[in-house]
Amino acid sequence: GQNIDQPTEMTATEGAIVQINCTYQTSGFNGLFWYQQHAGEAPTFLSYNVLDGLEEKGRFSSFLSRSKGYSYLLLKELQMKDSASYLCAVRDDKIIFGKGTRLHILP
Amino acid sequence: ETGVTQTPRHLVMGMTNKKSLKCEQHLGHNAMYWYKQSAKKPLELMFVYSLEERVENNSVPSRFSPECPNSSHLFLHLHTLQPEDSALYLCASSQELMGGETQYFGPGTRLLVL
Description:
The structure holds two protein chains of two kinds.
Chain A: E1 3-5, E2 9-13, E3 18-25, E4 32-37, E5 44-49, E6 53-57, E7 60-65, E8 70-75, E9 84-91, E10 95-97, E11 101-106
Parallel strand pairs in A: 2-11
Antiparallel strand pairs in A: 1-3, 3-8, 4-5, 4-9, 6-7, 7-8, 9-10, 9-11
Chain B: E1 4-7, E2 10-13, E3 18-25, E4 31-37, E5 44-50, E6 53-57, E7 64-70, E8 73-79, E9 87-94, E10 104-105, E11 109-113
Parallel strand pairs in B: 2-11
Antiparallel strand pairs in B: 1-3, 3-8, 4-5, 4-9, 5-6, 7-8, 9-10, 9-11
């Protein structure tokens, strides 16, 4: 079956680094997305990985290992505004979302 | 980013009502999507339209009826809904349907069915 797993909640401190993991089992693979969703708002695109390796974009980086069915989102120099849910999504013939990881940032 | 707009933002309806959700994208995209987001559940893809043709219907009950009159507008017509249909309904669009196309989401309509 199709399944995407990510932790339900995580807590980190302002200024620190946090890694949010995502594992997936899907029948096919055409790319993995990370979205950020603040409470009461729409998801916004963060990153897209289709090849193995690390994609860096400012304070955020995303890593993919297709052989392991694994990705992570790395957030550096955490800010209070980074408190949000982070959604991992995989596209095979359609896009499938995980339940999201709610990240709490402590001052 | 106000490329994708949705109205209304909030909706309360009874089980016998008929209502419609509207989505408009101003990005010149060719693909549009309806998603349902319930508490503690992943985003569920409901319908996909590409160039105004429905290309995907993920076993959605017939009480939800989509309509795509042109590539910029997408509607979701609601009829005799159930309380468990209460959720956030999100519209999204992307340039094309396949590949790594980024989906841009609207703000959503929060629906409560009484």
